[in-house]
Design a protein that fits this description.
This protein is of the alpha+beta class. It has two domains: 43-69 and 195-239, no CATH class; 75-189, no CATH class. The protein contains eight helices and five strands; from the N terminus they run ααααββββαβααα. It has helices at 32-42, 44-62, 75-90, 94-100, 157-160, 176-188, 194-218, 226-239; strands spanning 118-125, 131-136, 143-147, 152-155, 164-171. A hairpin with a 6-residue loop joins β2 (131-136) and β3 (143-147). α3 crosses α4 (94-100) and α7 runs antiparallel to α8 (226-239). The longest helix is centred in the C-terminal third of the chain and has 25 residues, at 194-218. The radius of gyration is 27 Å and the shape is elongated.
Length: 243
């Protein structure tokens, strides 16, 4: 059916109706303890727990042997250890201070296992005490060298004969996962199983999607049945890029 264009939809001045529907009546004035007891007696948590366990199991099974240890791309493991070292150094830990000596903030303390998706630049101390930071434009390690400020200089082999070179590495991703991983890194260091870490939050996301959809239903904003919500959750968890 054809619908002619009209003015955009606007919410009423008083805002949307937030009154809970009869599906899950909220006791007015109830304490947090009473709410938790009512939630436990309703056994609504059973379905949520089942969604999490099933999602965790499917993700774990399809991870195959990768679940046995640290992944091949341990960017956040390295960053979590770096953050722990920075915090310890700031708190006065002498061993951490020695590890962080002459390092930039967030600079990794050990070279990564490969060059995929890591940020890095070369720090070169030239004869005479001059320091330059940048990266090579010519792959053979001499010739055009682009500084971090954008300027390009030429370094000949004779300039580099007695130079000291040091490649500095950083993680090129936002630090949120690494911050959550810091307690694990404090226990296991660079042996943190980031695969299990990822699978846990992947399964938790599937559960949170279901809770969000159910909340929309409870608030009267959608008329989806529970089976509809389960199918939508299933499609999100295993039919999108989230998987």
């Amino acid at each position: 059916m054809y619908h002619p264009p009209g003015p955009p939809y606007r919410l009423p001045p008083e805002g949307p109706d937030t009154t809970p529907t009869v599906l899950t009546p909220e006791p007015s004035g109830a304490s947090m303890r009473e709410r938790l007891q009512a939630f436990y007696r309703s056994r609504r948590w059973v379905l949520g727990l089942a969604i999490f366990v099933v999602s965790f199991g499917v993700f774990s099974l399809t991870a195959f042997n990768r679940i046995e240890g640290t992944s091949t791309d341990p960017h956040f493991v390295y960053l979590a250890n770096t953050l722990n070292s920075m915090v310890a150094a700031a708190a006065g830990n002498q061993a951490a201070k020695r590890r962080r000596a002459n390092r930039k903030p967030f600079e990794l303390e050990r070279p990564p296992p490969h060059d995929n998706d890591w940020a890095s630049y070369w720090h070169i101390e030239l004869p005479g005490g001059r320091h330059v930071n940048g990266f090579w434009l010519d792959r053979q390690g001499h010739g055009r060298f682009k500084l971090l400020d954008g300027r390009v200089m030429v370094l000949e082999r004779s300039d580099l004969r007695r130079a000291r070179r040091d490649r500095r590495y950083f993680v090129s991703f936002p630090p949120g996962p690494a911050v959550l991983m810091m307690p694990l890194a404090a226990i296991w260091g660079y042996r943190v199983n980031d695969v299990l870490f990822t699978i846990f939050f992947a399964a938790l996301n599937v559960l949170l999607m279901f809770l969000l959809l159910r909340r929309l239903t409870v608030g009267g904003r959608t008329g989806r049945s529970r089976n509809d919500l389960l199918w939508l959750t299933l499609l999100f968890g295993f039919g999108t890029v989230h998987y």
